[in-house]
Amino acid sequence: GNSVTQMEGPVTLSEEAFLTINCTYTATGYPSLFWYVQYPGEGLQLLLKATKADDKGSNKGFEATYRKETTSFHLEKGSVQVSDSAVYFCALTQGGSEKLVFGKGTKLTVNP
Amino acid sequence: GAVVSQHPSWVICKSGTSVKIECRSLDFQATTMFWYRQFPKQSLMLMATSNEGSKATYEQGVEKDKFLINHASLTLSTLTVTSAHPEDSSFYICRRSRRNTENTEAFFGQGTRLTVV
């Protein structure tokens, strides 16, 4: 079945550091890929998405590229801020289905 | 602003009691809502799909008599954890189905942290 594997946290960085959170997936066909973010005390929010191979999703300085050859969708940001402290979830859907399959989540803490 | 409101955000209850969690769609009459559960350091796992006017569809391994889902209106779905036990302590989160125009966006509630003592 479909699955998502993302790097385990927690990840602790200093402000302005470079961030990478790895995400790989297992799926048949061409899933749509997502990163969701959960700020403390809040629900999940869509951060970015990509629906086909080689697409790059971007938002708020975060980027992720849909790599079919490596079945990956790694999240990157060049310079993190304290306000980026949150839990990040990689997820996929398949074939127009509304069922989201999530990774375990990675907690990011950014220190001033 | 929020399009899905989930209440309560946290609850502590005694073992053996029941707890009801509400999920409201604020901007859209959602015929379908989804309920997830998250264990510490684990993924969000889909528990069930709530359908307005019909029975919920439960994922394999989820006890439907334990986790009662009611979707009585197009804007409200409830999850009741019956006879709660400490192993039911978890983070529960709902999301509403998307409109046709929303493509792949998904809107979640704020989540409910349940602690059973």
Helices, strands, pairings?
The complex is a heterodimer of chains A (112) and B (117).
Chain A: E1 3-6, E2 11-14, E3 19-21, E4 23-26, E5 32-38, E6 44-50, E7 56-59, E8 62-65, E9 75-77, E10 86-93, E11 101-102, E12 106-111
Parallel strand pairs in A: 2-12
Antiparallel strand pairs in A: 1-4, 3-9, 5-6, 5-10, 7-8, 8-9, 10-11, 10-12
Chain B: E1 4-7, E2 10-13, E3 19-25, E4 32-38, E5 44-51, E6 57-58, E7 67-73, E8 76-81, E9 90-96, E10 107-108, E11 112-116
Parallel strand pairs in B: 2-11
Antiparallel strand pairs in B: 1-3, 3-8, 4-5, 4-9, 5-6, 7-8, 9-10, 9-11
Describe the structure.
The complex is a heterodimer of chains A (112) and B (117). In chain A, the strands form three sheets. In chain A, strands 2, 5, 6, 10, 11 and 12 form a six-stranded mixed beta sheet that branches. A four-stranded antiparallel beta sheet of chain A has the order 3-9-8-7, with no helix packed on it. Chain A is mostly beta strands and 112 residues long. Chain A has no helices and twelve strands. Chain A has strands at 3-6, 11-14, 19-21, 23-26, 32-38, 44-50, 56-59, 62-65, 75-77, 86-93, 101-102, 106-111. In chain A, 0% of the residues lie in helices and 50% in strands. By secondary structure, chain B is an all-beta fold. Chain B contains no helices and eleven strands. Chain B has strands at 4-7, 10-13, 19-25, 32-38, 44-51, 57-58, 67-73, 76-81, 90-96, 107-108, 112-116. In chain B, the strands form two sheets. In chain B, strands 2, 4, 5, 6, 9, 10 and 11 form a seven-stranded mixed beta sheet that branches. In chain B, strands 1-3-8-7 form a four-stranded antiparallel beta sheet, with no helix packed on it. Chain B starts with a strand and ends with a strand. The model of chain B has no long low-confidence stretch (mean pLDDT 88). At the A-B interface, strand 5, strand 6 and strand 11 of A face strand 4 and strand 5 of B.
